[in-house]
Design goal:
Helix 4 crosses helix 5 and helix 4 crosses helix 6. With 275 residues, the protein is an all-alpha fold.
Amino acid sequence: MRSLQLAASSHPAHRTALEVLASFGIELAPEAGEPDLTFSDRIDTTLMALFRDRRAPEAFEVLYQRARGGIFDLVRRLTGERGLPFDPLELVQDTFINVYRYAKGFRDEHAGSFRAWARTIAQHTVYRAATRRRMRSLQSLPEGAQEPADERQLPARGIVEREDVRQLAQSWIIFLDHYARAYAELSPRDRRALHLVEVEGLSYEEAARVLVVGRSNMKMILFRARGRIQARMRASMAVDAVNAAEQRVKTAPAGQLVRGTELVEPRTAGLRAVG
């Protein structure tokens, strides 16, 4: 534990990640003469390997918090170079969906393995988005895409934004968990088809040749696979919502009722006894 304390005190930016790793019995400390960037990459790679092997949501959450900034910068640069009117945040989300979905394919071969792997996925995500845009022959930007951002800062804006980010990250982990469960229930062929197109960035024609099917069959396989994922996610989310509602009923204070997601007081004011 002393090595963890020393590493955390000398590298405060890594404190949370080191504590998560330590909770699973993994202690990391910088090696003699190791640059901070290399140490940071080694932490990220270890977090990803932990998530791959143990499916630990806390490992993925802290990894997402640490890595999303670099992925955002990469995506913004790639979309800017190509003049693509895409929201980089959406492409970053798509990137991490694939990181989560294909965790089993991650190989921690060196300190920078996660950085290289995640950047490759991000590049494929931008490439697929650009390809879809060309195929749809979009002629104009979405409404409001060229409106300048309001740079005025409100007094509490920073606090509100940090809370929004925290809640978004928690919601994102829940969403990815539902997605991973739905993806795992697909047939091996459906999972392979999605991997070829959405991770490796192959076109329909290229993926069809790998699976030895026709192009139209390939499109149908993907269409049905995505539909099954959506249906199973809706079903599992509905079950979770029912379980959450039942839990709220069980834990509601005496005299309170549960309505939807809120606890409400019974409306007794103004009632008179009838006798």
